[in-house]
Design goal:
The complex is a heterodimer of chains A (about 325) and B (about 575). Chain A is an all-alpha fold. Chain A folds into two domains: about 55 residues, no CATH class; about 200 residues, MetI-like (MetI-like fold, Orthogonal Bundle). Chain A contains 14 helices and two strands. In chain A, strands 1-2 form a two-stranded antiparallel ribbon. The longest helix of chain A has about 40 residues. Chain A is globular. By secondary structure, chain B is α+β, with helices and mostly antiparallel strands. Chain B has 15 helices and 28 strands. In chain B, a hairpin with a 2-residue loop joins strand 7 and strand 8. In chain B, helix 3 runs parallel beside helix 4, helix 8 packs antiparallel against helix 10 and helix 14 packs antiparallel against helix 15. The longest helix of chain B has 18 residues. Chain B starts with a helix and ends with a strand. The chains are: A mainly alpha (about 325), B alpha+beta (about 575). Chains A and B meet through helix 2, helix 4, helix 6 and helix 13 of A and strand 11, strand 14, helix 5, helix 12 and helix 13 of B.
């Protein structure tokens, strides 16, 4: 077991170097660099542009830039400097990552809490009206693009607020400037938490509707498969109550692949919630990443790739270990 | 020590500010209120020596002073921290008198030491401030010296017309001085710095910053300004930038009354605001077509083309006039701008009244005239596909690009490409990545050639034509149609380019306003006639506001240079 974990960690090194080299090269292939966008400003002199490139080491060959960056990451845990903000990459991405986690954690919990019961219901009442309705809704959520649904939700919020005459739903953002007349930062912690939760209602709904469909279908398929197996028939034949059959025997077996997939959610924690963050003005990692890409802020991009590669590898490992834990048939030796 | 002495003397005299600046508002205002505006991204820094983009300088401008600026009512130079000035040596030297008694928010005096220090740091190539070009004129430095505690002197290497516009930020020496000597000036006032440690010398001071969400500034009680009734300004208690990266969401915030001012960028947005105002959902106003924006959009042909035939063609003024005759500005305004815009014919932006002239040659849309001019160049026959060919059967064709993602620009480019094709010119239009476009435009190969045929691009306009000398002088880095290598003039120049170069130099060194206008009028005529850039259309300025704001310009006074109000100091909220 420990042997297996150690081996997985060793595999991490070539994967990591390969992934970062690939990312670094791809960023460099794109035309221009972080300084290019200043070149069309008539008031900026050519020598200023050249000096900026020197300051950031952008005039050096690409392998040298990569080697410097890699040694910083490996030996000092230093992710580099943001060329756009002129400060430490970690200080640029830390807060957006935490903000995104709020959305990702809440929507993931909501997805699991809703999708599993729906999946079970759909399997038990196969092809009933309820099954069809829920499946239709799930696919509808999957089919509507998040950014578009987000915009609809914004206009929905304005409509609700107009009709009620009070701000019932927030129009984007993550916090209010003032809570009950007190500046946000001076309000007590529980009021601040409630404020963030209130702002997260709409983005979490948008995220959950799109994430739910897949899980509902997997859960339904798994349940159908398990319910048709011999041991379920045996249990029913023995006269076990239908509730017990479904929840104790069938569900526990059907849920195995989903538990095993939990590790895969780990990199998603920092990958952010996608374009809904941009539309809803949620200060998450997606707007920060898009800004970094458009500014070719190379080390911020690399920093995010580094962290998500690392978490992806760790997440896969956790998945494998969880699988062994929930499924006694699997052993790593 | 001197500062402490001055401070105690002032305290004895019982004066807050001995020589306050009077900010004349549009109407009488009252204190209090929060002005909220959306910003497309966060500031990158609060450090005036590091800041490069408007997302940062828009914030810095609220808490750091400049010596002078443009008077919002007449666009003439106006003293800000400088109370007055004197010209000496035929304008080669300017003596600025500073406002006595002006203080930083931490109580220290703002005096000549701060000004000289800031000038030194901005001018230092190692600091590489964005304002460095204000301190170098044609490669020679402007010398700043302290005369006494409240007087500074600037010596210019040659007469310089915009000498009175000193719009760089003055930073407190007592905070930045040590760090500058240690070469660590860029490490101060980053986004990580606690905002209460950032000192203000402007109308507002930083109160809080939430990354990705908002920057809040509060009124600076130590500010050196008053209104025309000697009341302290700013009236506003708070100024809030709300970060909204998505443009639709930013409009939604304005419609919901969560931000106070907005610039509608197209007809669709104007319609949405009008609709909401009519339905009573928003108490506010929108002013479509109030003015024209200052940006310029133009088509530029590459005279340094790798293909010598194309280079020769693009150098021919007849060819460029023919192309200008194929630019259907009316359709561009209708289709690409939704009817909200104006045609442009020459380089100076329409709102810059003191220099703009409409009296230039206009090569209006006329496929017939274009065909006649092209026939003079030898393109008389059309081939089977309907494209013009010369005597040897070579098709008249060129590649045409603009930057991807700018919808208005892409539409303008398509309209031109379609009209040109109808006239028999094979225009191969393709949008490309912005950075790739910049590379093609600005980076010649070692032999001086560049690899594009024609580009549709824009440059930000400014009030002061002298600041665009990089575009028009022969050795300028943005002399985009005919670019020299390594900061040199191009090898082969036309006589009109030499004339433009001469006019730009004259314009920058002539101090008499009437003579300057004459020079720039001639400059516009030369450009419109020779078309190094073929100008297209300028989008309209369509400002919108929430009715809770007071102190804003009435419709007749709105202009895209100053914006919706003369000074932020005299804006107020009515509730």
């Amino acid at each position: 077991m420990w042997n297996y974990i150690a081996r997985r960690f060793l595999q991490l090194i070539p994967t990591f170097v390969g992934a970062t080299i690939l990312a670094f090269v791809i960023i460099q292939i794109a035309p221009g660099d972080a300084i290019t966008r200043f070149e069309l400003d008539p008031t900026v002199e050519r020598e200023q542009i050249e000096r900026l490139r020197q300051q950031f080491g952008l005039d050096q060959p690409v392998p040298v830039q990569y080697a410097k960056w890699l040694s910083g990451v490996l030996f000092h845990g230093y992710l580099g400097i943001s060329l756009d903000y002129r400060s430490d990459v970690w200080s640029v991405i830390r807060q957006p990552i935490l903000n995104s986690m709020v959305l990702v954690v809440l929507s993931t919990l909501l997805i699991f809490a809703v999708a599993i019961p729906i999946g079970v219901y759909s399997a038990v009442r196969k092809y009933s009206l309820g099954d069809r309705t829920l499946t239709f809704l799930a696919f509808f959520g999957l089919a509507v693009p998040n950014f578009f649904f987000g915009l609809i939700m914004l206009y929905f919020a304005i409509w609700v607020n107009d009709n009620v005459g009070r701000p019932i739903l927030p129009i984007g953002g993550m916090t209010s400037q003032e809570i009950g007349g007190v500046p946000y930062l001076e309000a007590p912690w529980w009021q601040r938490t409630l404020d963030v939760l209130w702002h997260s209602i709409l983005p979490v709904i948008v995220l959950s509707t799109s994430g739910m469909a897949g899980l509902v279908r997997i859960m339904r398929g798994q349940m159908l498969e398990v319910l048709s197996q011999d041991f379920v028939r045996t249990a029913r034949a023995k006269g076990v109550a239908e509730r017990m059959v479904i929840y104790k025997h069938a569900l526990r077996n059907a849920v195995i692949p989903i538990v095993a997939g939990i590790g895969g959610l780990l990199p998603g924690l920092i990958a952010g919630a996608g374009l809904v963050e941009v539309v809803m003005a949620w200060p998450g990692i997606t707007p920060a990443f898009l800004q970094a890409v458009s500014a070719i802020d190379i080390y911020v991009i690399m920093g995010l790739i580094t962290i998500s590669t690392f978490l992806l590898i760790i997440g896969n490992l956790i998945s494998d270990l969880l699988l062994a834990w929930v499924d006694p048939r699997i052993r790593y030796n | 020590m001197k500062k402490i002495l001055a401070l105690s003397m002032l305290a004895l005299a019982g004066l807050a500010v001995a020589q306050p600046k009077v900010f004349k508002g549009v109407e009488a205002g009252k204190a209090g209120g929060n002005y909220r505006i959306s910003a497309i991204s966060d500031p990158r820094t609060f450090n005036p020596f590091v800041a490069r983009e408007t997302s940062s300088t828009n914030v810095i401008a609220l808490f750091l002073p400049t010596l002078t600026g443009y008077d919002p009512y007449g666009l003439k130079p106006e003293g800000l921290l400088a109370q007055s000035w004197e010209l000496r040596n035929n304008g080669l030297s300017v003596i600025f008198k500073l406002r006595q008694g002006a203080k930083w928010s931490d109580g220290q005096t703002i005096d000549a030491d701060d000004v000289i220090f800031s000038a030194t740091a901005h001018a230092d190539p190692k600091v590489n401030s964005n304002s460095r070009s204000s301190f170098v004129i044609d490669g020679q430095p402007v010398k700043w010296t302290k005369v006494d505690q409240y007087t500074v002197r600037a010596d210019f290497p040659k007469p310089y017309a915009p000498a009175l516009i000193q719009g760089w930020y003055i930073a407190p020496e007592h905070i930045f001085g040590e760090a500058y000597k240690a070469g660590k000036i860029a490490e101060l006032w980053t986004l990580e710095t606690p905002v209460n440690r950032i000192v203000s010398g402007g109308p507002f001071m930083l109160e809080s910053y939430a990354k990705g969400e908002r920057v809040v500034l509060k009124r600076n009680p130590n500010y050196w300004g008053v209104d025309d009734k000697n009341n302290a300004v700013a009236y506003l208690e708070r100024y809030t930038f709300i970060t909204v990266p998505d443009l639709n969401a930013s409009l939604a915030k304005f419609l919901a009354g969560e931000t106070d001012a907005y610039n509608a960028s197209n007809a669709d947005q104007v319609a949405q605001i009008l609709e909401r105002v009519r339905s009573g959902g928003l108490k506010g106003e929108v002013f479509p077509n109030a003015d024209v924006t200052t940006g310029t959009e133009f088509i530029v042909f590459n005279w340094n083309n790798k293909d010598p035939n194309k280079a020769k063609l693009f150098r021919s003024v007849k060819f460029r006039r023919a192309m200008a005759h194929l630019v259907d500005k009316k359709s561009m305004i209708e289709v690409a701008l939704g009817g909200l815009g104006q045609p442009m014919w020459s380089p100076i932006s329409i709102p810059v009244k003191q220099f703009f002239t409409d009296d230039v040659i206009k090569y209006e849309f006329s496929p017939q005239k274009a065909a006649a001019l092209l026939a003079e160049l030898g393109f008389r026959k059309k081939n089977a596909q309907g494209f013009l060919v010369d005597a040897s059967g070579k098709v008249l064709e060129f590649n045409f690009v603009t930057n991807q993602g700018n919808n208005t620009r892409e539409k303008i480019a398509q309209i031109f490409a379609e009209d040109a094709k109808k006239a028999g010119v094979k225009v191969n239009y393709r949008p490309v990545d912005f950075n790739e476009l910049v590379r093609q435009l600005t980076q010649p190969a070692a032999d001086g050639t560049r690899d594009f045929d024609a580009i549709l691009i824009g440059l930000t306009g400014s009030i002061e034509p002298a600041f665009s000398r990089n575009t028009w002088q022969l050795n300028g880095s943005l002399h985009a149609w005919n670019l020299g290598v390594g900061g040199q003039a191009p090898k082969q120049v036309e006589s009109f380019e030499v004339l433009i170069d001469k006019l730009m130099t004259q314009g920058a060194t002539t101090l008499d306003p009437a003579k300057r206008r004459e020079i720039y009028v001639q400059f516009q005529k030369v450009v419109a006639e020779n078309l190094p850039f073929i100008y297209t259309v300028a989008p309209a300025y369509n400002p919108a506001r929430n009715a809770r704001l007071g102190g804003l310009f009435p419709k007749a006074q709105l202009n895209s240079i100053v914006g919706q109000f003369p000074y932020i100091e005299t804006v107020f909220t009515k509730e």
